Amino acid sequence: MASLNPDDERAEELNTLQSIYPELAIEHTNPFTAHIDLLVAPTIPLPGIFEPEHVVSRLAYLPAIHLDIALPAEYPANAPPLVNVSTTPSWLPSATADSLAKEAHSLWEEYGGAQMLFAYISYLQEAAETAFGLSEITLPSGLQAELESYSKRMKRELFDKETFDCGVCLEPKKGTVCYRMERCNHVFCVACLQDYYNNCIQEGDVNNVKCMSTECGETRGSKKNARLISPKELLQIPLALETVERYAKIKRKKKIEADPHIIYCPRSWCQGAMRTDKYPKITNVREMDESDSETDEPVKSATDEPLQADGPEKRRVGTKGMDRLALCEDCNLAFCTVCLASWHGDFVSCQPRDTSQLTEEDQASLNYIMRNTSPCPTCSVPCQKSYGCNHMTCFQCKTHFCYLCGAWLNPDNPYEHFNNKKNKACFQRLMDMAEGDMAEGNVQFGGARGAEQMAAFWEEEAMRIQMELDAQHS
Amino acid sequence: MSAGAKKRIMREYGECMADTPPGMKINFDERNMTKWEVLLDGPDQSPYAGGHFKLEINFPNEYPFKPPVVSFKTKIYHPNVSNDDKGSMCLGLLRADEWKPPNKVVAVLRLIQTLMIEPNPDDAIEPSIANEYKENRKEFEKNVKDWVKRYAK
């Protein structure tokens, strides 16, 4: 039967221990039993391997080890303490837990019957720093989410409690308003990070969107080491979604512009880049976590082909057959990267050409476009009506416009344009030429450029008549 | 200029006061804190020794995201300082693409002192002076001393 004498050596030891570790809890019912949770933060994050998928995740913090201590009446002189080491959820291999518990026995022997709990707890804390000698732990995948979120939460909690001197505003700031950079671990306050990156992105200076620290990649001559921050990380800081989208867009554009292998769409109203796997279109910046180097470095492609030296546009020479085919990423035009005409099939041989020089064929099609289409008032893409009323919706930008005069129409009430007497040219003409410009094989263009041509024709005609009259008078 | 930027300049001034690099005096006007006037003695181990130079440091509105602008108000014969009435400098830290927000004015002042002891002819704003510095050190030092006598006493 345990004596309740407060002068008991065991009670004294536990009380002393409690003043060192306030988190040590002594049982109310039995003053000779206690428990304590010890933080596990290995200096090198412990790789957790989650089976059966074999997902590896590096854990910087693991759920605390729970140490139960019970001191028998014979302790310390004649009996070792009874200890039990456990974890919730159970991530610590039982063999390791057992050997940690055994260590209590050997320490007790080493201390020759003296009080040894402090030494034991210190031993456990030290062992936790090296993850108890474990190089990895294998766990069922069911524990992955729990352990990962624990590690993240602990990291955040400990970070929040710290105070940092922000190197930009030079003020001490609480961890709660600071952010630690993912790659280099430098810490700045969120307000300064937001100010700086918003400013960079606003000015289009995307190559400065990297860690602000002077230690980051700024050693002379090798400043290219500094990496640009990924859109995903910018959102974590956090920056506004539209700012991050602008950042990703400019960055992509700069890369494309720096790449001599990219050919642009020959349609002058489009000029989109050719489709390529190298620069995928931006779909969701939330998932863009690559932190690439500066974009002004020339991109080295694996198959560096000889480039045409100078010219308005650098273009591949010696490319043959289907390799010449490119698709515009914006308007989907299939074109030839050598002659810049719309795709002519793989058997046609063709010559390099500047975009400014038009072939007869292109000139003819351009002339046709100039005569027989109406430009969209927003994006200028040429439109031709195949059938229907004169209220058009641009196929590219969805602008509503009038096919007769090219005027922009209010999408909420597009027909008002045709019902308003003020619009003399278009009043009551919604259904004019509803069968389309090419009805029954007759090209009868009814679009805005047709009206321009009509005006030009009558102007010339008037001039001619005037001159005839002048000639008669003289 | 944002309140944060002003606060930072105040702080930096405090730090400079507490630990002014030797041979330097900073005049600070609280009503116009974005313009500092610095009086700088030519470092002893340089041909500028004995000269007193007046500098102006202007903080841009975007400070500390953009570097401060330094100009010598006293004429100085130096490859890295423009030989005109502006006396401007543009190298190292002071360049927009090399400046990093945690850099401080103190670092800029130290850079200037270092450059007076050891000019950087490879990043010169005055190529002819840089050339002279490289090819004819004696002539260079003579000219420096001449100018010190004429302008910086």
Automatic annotation (TrEMBL), chain A:
PROSITE patterns xref list: RWD, TRIAD, ZF_RING_1, ZF_RING_2
CDD domains hit by this protein: Rcat_RBR_RNF14 (cd20354), RING-HC_ITT1-like (cd23134), RWD_RNF14 (cd23820)
Keyword annotations from UniProtKB, A to Z: Metal-binding, Repeat, Transferase, Ubl conjugation pathway, Zinc, Zinc-finger
Gene Ontology biological process terms, A to Z: protein ubiquitination
Region (Disordered): 283-316
Residues in RING-type domain copies: 162-430, 166-200
Catalytic activity: [E2 ubiquitin-conjugating enzyme]-S-ubiquitinyl-L-cysteine + [acceptor protein]-L-lysine = [E2 ubiquitin-conjugating enzyme]-L-cysteine + [acceptor protein]-N(6)-ubiquitinyl-L-lysine
GO MF, one annotated term: ubiquitin protein ligase activity
Residue ranges the record marks as coiled coil: none
Pfam families: IBR, IBR_1, RWD
Stored SMART domains: IBR, RWD
Stretches assigned to the RWD domain: 12-131
Pathway noted in the entry: Protein modification; protein ubiquitination
Keyword Acyltransferase listed: no
EC number: 2.3.2.31
Family to which the UniProt record says this protein belongs: Belongs to the RBR family. RNF14 subfamily.
Name of this chain's protein: RBR-type E3 ubiquitin transferase
Source organism: Lentithecium fluviatile CBS 122367
Classification lineage: Eukaryota, Fungi, Dikarya, Ascomycota, Pezizomycotina
TrEMBL record, chain B:
Keyword flag Nucleotide-binding: yes
Database matches in PROSITE patterns: UBC_2
Pfam families with a match to the protein in the record: UQ_con
E.C. designation(s): 2.3.2.23
Protein name: E2 ubiquitin-conjugating enzyme
Keyword field: ATP-binding, Nucleotide-binding, Transferase, Ubl conjugation pathway
Leader peptide range in chain numbering: none
Organism: Lentithecium fluviatile CBS 122367
InterPro entries: Ub_conjugating_enzyme (IPR050113), UBC (IPR000608), UBQ-conjugating_enzyme/RWD (IPR016135)
Keyword Cytoplasm: no
Residue ranges annotated for the UBC core domain, each copy included: 4-153
GO molecular function: ATP binding; ubiquitin conjugating enzyme activity
